[in-house]
Amino acid sequence: MARSDSHLPKALQGLRIPLIASPLFIISVPKLVIAQCKAGIVGSFPALNAREAEGEPPLLDAWLTEIKEELDRHNQANPDTPAAPFAINQIVHRSNSRLERDLEIAVKHEVPIWITSLGARVEVNEAAHSCGGIVLHDIINNKFAKKAVEKGADGLVAVAAGAGGHAGQQSPFALVNEIREWYEGPIALSGSIATGQSLLAARAMGADLGYAGSPFIATEEANADQAYKDMIVDSGADDIVYSSLFTGVWGNYLKGSVKNAGMDPDNLPTADASSMNFGADREKPKAWKTIWGSGQGIGAVKSVGPAGAIVDRMADEYFAAGKKLAAEFS
To answer: Which residues contact 257 (CB under 8 A, 6 or more apart)?
Structure first.
């Protein structure tokens, strides 16, 4: 199935399939990002995943060097099938005391794609643009989408109902449709994008790319406990709970992990946004150390395997679904 991506920024063109692997807290590390990029999709990680001990050189600098050097080696050895570019996620909430330092490191390494979360800030967009990068800001409603574009974002990640981690409540159909009424720029859709069919549906409703994270938890390269990976494989949409308790922001989590922490997933208290803290001094209650985020699309994940196998499966499904629809409309 032919597709055109010439309207997108250069960093988002030429992907094997139009998919961004979302940045997963703790889980996304260079090994996973590199595997995703080599498989032909944008790999990403949160800058805050790179945590060094006090007094040590910034681990983020080392991670970016590792990713860039390995992808460069791959591209030199495989000029006909180069790796996709990578992205870094910056949490721009005011509690993130590392932000300024991490921005400087990202600019130094000329990171091509920046994903910003929890607040749209002009100075962050300007930092990305200073090194030739583009900024995709994640939003959960039309109001926040307009604010992000007004402050200079180059594209949006529409985080709809069913997405893993911090997620909105709106239907992807409603969210994308309302944004497309006024915005023609790049939109990546997040919310149960775990199959090629769902990726094709995202594009049919007006998104340019899909944004998938949960399937990549159950991969060999993911920095996740084996029990977490196994729970992803063994769970489905009914096994997800939506709660604000754990970070102060509403998100989706595995019910099994909540039960294992001694809590009732069907009777969780709520927490307001004032409890958000992404600073170095952040502490989580001991019982929450193994609360695991996940989206509702994990019913498509049947086993733990290489990240490239996830991309292979979704690519096969995506093009097969496209051919089937093309035949029906011909």
So the answer is: 228, 231, 290, 291, 292
CATH class of residue range 10-225+296-329: alpha beta
> If DSSP codes are grouped into helix, strand and coil, which group holds residue 272?
coil
DSSP 8-class letter at 96: -
Give the Cα separation of 127 and 130 in Å (integer): 5
pLDDT digits (tens, 9 = 90+) for 35-60: 999 999 999 999 999 999 988 999 99
Q: Are strands 155-159 and 113-117 parallel, antiparallel or unpaired?
A: unpaired
Q: Residue 141: exposed, middle, or buried by beta-carbon count in 10 A (0-12, 13-18, 19+)?
A: middle
Q: Residue 52 pairs with which residues in a beta bridge?
A: none
Contact 19, 209 (CB under 8 A): yes
Q: Could you give the CA distance from residue 166 to residue 252 in angstroms, rounded to a whole number?
A: 7
CA atoms within 13 Å, Cβ hemisphere of 53: 0
